[in-house]
Amino acid sequence: MSSQLTRRDWLRASGLLTAGLGLSRFTPAKASVPNAPLISGFTNEFAFADDPFANMPKLRARLFANENPLGISASAKEAIIKATEIGNRYAWMEFGQLKSLIATDDGVKPANIMMAPGSSDILMAAADHFAKGGGTILTSTMTYDDLLQRAEKFGAKIKALPMTKEYKFDLNAIKASITPDVKLVYIVNPNNPTGTIIPTPELEAFIREVSPKVPVFIDEAYIDFYEPADRPKLGKLVAEGMNVILARTFSKIHGFAGLRLGYAIAQPDMLKILHAYTNGDFAVSITTLMAGIASYKDIEWQNHCRAENAKARAYTTKALADLGYEVIPSATNFILFPIRMKTKTFEGQMFGQGIGIQTRDFNGQPYCRVSVGTMDEMAIFMDGFKKVVG
Ligand SMILES: Cc1ncc(COP(=O)(O)O)c(C=O)c1O
User: Fold this and answer.
1) What CA–CA distance (Å, rounded) separates 82 from 339?
2) What is the best residue among 249, 253, 259 to mutate for testing ligand 1's pocket, by most ligand atoms within 8 Å of CB?
3) Is residue 219 within 6 Å of ligand 1 at its C-beta?
4) CB atoms within 10 A of CB 150
5) Quick one: which of 99, 207, 220, 271 could link to 114 by a disulfide (CB 3.0–4.6 Å)?
6) Of 3.40.1400.10, 3.40.50.300, 3.90.1150.10, 3.40.1440.10, which CATH number belongs to 7-71+304-389?
7) Are 7-71+304-389 and 74-297 equal in CATH topology?
C-alpha cells in the first residue's frame, strides 16, 4: 500500500500547518496580485481553542480540495430556502423523486440506487464490507486512497499495481493479477489525482470480463466533467445484472461538497449489503435532498460549471506548459504535474502566499495537484507559482 494520505491526514500534515506556523518564505501580505479576493481557507472565527487549523492563513485561492469554485446553483439555493418549511419532516417520497430522475438517466431501476451523504459513505461501506475476513483489494497507484486505507485498517491487503506510462489504470495488469483472494477491484474514472480517463470501450470490456469473478467498484466522482454525450454509461451494465458498484457525488459539478450528497448504483443485493454499514438514504437531510433534486434538474448550471472549468483548466495547462512543465492531460477539475522541488517546501511557499494546493511524492518524483478554480484564482496560482519556482 502506498504512503499516500487520506484527505483528513493530508490536511494535518500539509502546508496548511507549515504555512500556519510561519515556516514559509512568503506571507499573504507580500503577494502581488492586487485586490485579490480573500477566500477563507478555514473560517478562523469559528475555531475552537485547540483547533489545529486556528492559525491557518486566509486563502486567496482555495485549490486543494477539488471543489466547485462557482458555488451551488441559484435553483439549489431556492430549494434550500423552501426546504426549511419541511425541515420538521423525515424525507420519504423525496428520495423516490431523485432516484427516479437518476434511474431514468442511467437506465436502471430506483431499486439499483442508494443515496448517501457524499460518496465517501459508499466508499467507507464498501471498504468495511470487503475488508471483512481479510483478502485483497486490487487497484493501481496512484489513486484516491480513502477506500483503500480504510479497508487496510480493517484487515484487507491492498495490491496497487503500477499505472501505464500515460498515468492510466493498467486494466490488463489488473486482469492478470486476479487470484482467488481478490475480493474487490477499485477503479477511479476519471482518476484522482492524475485526472486521466480510461477509454469507455476498454472499461466496459474489462467489467464484462472481470465482474463475473470479482465485484468491480468504479468511483465516478469526476464523471460530470465529461461532456454528457461522451460519458461512459455504465448503468447499462448494472441493468444487465453485472456485479459492478458505481459511486457518484454531488460534491463536484453540483458544488455540494459541504452540503453532502452522493449515491451508489449497484445490484439491489449489493446495496442491501452496503446498507448494513451506513444509514444510506436516511443519512441525507431533506434540505440537501431538495437542493439535490433542483441541482440535478438544472442542466444549464451544470453546463455552465463544466464550461468554466474547461476554460480555466485550459488556461492553467497552457500557462504551465509555457513555463516548461509537463501537465498530465486532465478530464477533471484538477491538474497534476511534476515539480522540481521538494513537496513540503513547495506547499509551504504556496500556502504562505495564500494559495492552497496539494502535492504528492510518487516514485521519487514530486508533483503538484492544483484544483481548477475561477480564472482569477488560476491567475493567482500562476503568479504565486512563478514566484516559488523562480
Ligand atoms: C475520487 C474521489 N472519490 C470520492 C470522493 C469523495 O467525495 P464526497 O464524499 O464529497 O462525495 C472524492 C473527493 O474528493 C474523490 O476525489
Assistant:
1) 47
2) 249
3) yes
4) 19
5) 271
6) 3.90.1150.10
7) no
Task: Retrieve residue 340's grid coordinates.
Answer: 522540481
* Ligand 1 centroid – CA 120 distance (Å): 6
Give the pLDDT of residue 53.
64
pLDDT at residue 25, as a whole number: 26
Nearest-angstrom CA–CA distance, 245 and 265: 6
Give me the pLDDT at residue 16, please.
53
Q: Among 72, 115, 219, which is best to mutate for testing ligand 1, by the most ligand atoms less than 8 A from CB?
A: 219
Our answer on whether the CB atom of 117 is closer than 6 Å to any ligand 1 atom is no
Do 209 and 175 contact (CB within 8 A), yes or no?
A: yes
* Residue 58 pLDDT: 80
Ligand 1 contact via 221 beta carbon (within 6 Å) = yes
Rounded-to-integer distance, Cα 294 and Cα 149, Å:
34
Grid cell locating 254:
453540483
Domain ranges of the chain: 7-71+304-389, 74-297
Question: What kind of architecture, by CATH, is found in domain 74-297?
Answer: 3-Layer(aba) Sandwich (3.40)
Instruction: Profile the chain (390 residues) by mean pLDDT over runs of 10 residues.
Output: 46 48 28 39 57 72 97 98 96 93 98 98 98 97 96 97 96 97 98 97 98 98 94 97 98 98 98 95 96 98 98 98 97 98 96 95 96 98 96
119 pocket-lining for ligand 1 (C-beta < 6 Å): yes
Q: Please give the pLDDT value at position 93.
A: 86
Which triple of cell numbers denotes residue 315?
A: 488556461
